[in-house]
Amino acid sequence: MDKIANIFSHIQNTQKRGKTFVRISSSKMAERILSCLFIEGYIKGFSLISELKKPVYVVYLGNSGYELSGTSFKQTGIQKIFRISKPGKRVYTNIKNLQKVKRGLGTLLVSTSQGILSDRDARFLKKGGEILCQIF
Questions:
Q1: Which of 32, 35, 99, 128 has the least CB density, counted as fewest CB within 10 Å?
Q2: Range of the structural domain that residue 60 is part of
Q3: So what's the pLDDT on residue 104?
Q4: How far is CA 113 from CA 53, 86, 128, in A?
Q5: Are the CB atoms for 35 and 1 separated by under 8 Å?
Q6: Into how many domains does the chain fold?
Q7: 24-65 pLDDT, tens per residue?
Q8: 59-117 per-position pLDDT tens digit
Q9: Cα–Cα distance between 6 and 11 in angstroms, integer?
Q10: CB under 8 Å to 113, separation ≥6 — which residues?
Q11: CATH code where residue 113 lies
Q12: Nearest CA-CA partner of 7 in 107, 114, 109
């Protein structure tokens, strides 16, 4: 099964149930995706537990919704995750065709030669690549 889809489905299903954390099997891809989600503010944090038979990441989720930050609203948690590039159909883009999600309120995760980056970081570094998912 698709490892990236497993990560996203675990996070979405756990957040819908109102739980505060979820365990995800450890891999370098999972670490890179979770670090992007943490930097963009969609999760509160994650840590590696390697004392078990198979190491796992414990992901701490935030409540989905909006909170007032100064004079504007800031999105907390993950509302929706759409998988764009799938194992049967890969979707690639260059930097010129990289679109904003929900007028900049959402995020695209892009797999580039520099690793997995958010669309903002990919635009800053001028790197295109495979579009993994759309998050808002």
A1: 99
A2: 3-135
A3: 76
A4: 32, 18, 8
A5: no
A6: 1
A7: 999 999 999 999 999 988 899 999 998 888 999 999 997 665
A8: 999 766 556 656 655 556 788 899 999 989 999 999 998 888 888 788 999 999 999 99
A9: 9
A10: 127, 129
A11: 3.30.1490.10
A12: 109
pLDDT score, position 123: 92
Span 125-133, mean pLDDT? 94
Q: Is the dihedral of CA 81, 130, 103, 97 positive or negative?
A: negative
Cα 131 from Cα 41, distance rounded (Å): 19
**8-state DSSP, 20:** S
> What's the CA gap between 80 and 115, in Å, rounded?
23
Place of tokens 């299903």: 13
Cα(101)–Cα(80) distance, rounded to whole angstroms?
12
Q: Return the HEC string of 87-116.
A: CCECCEECHHHCCCCHHHCCEEEEEECCEE
Q: What is the pLDDT, as a whole number, of residue 72?
A: 59
Q: What is the pLDDT of residue 2?
A: 85
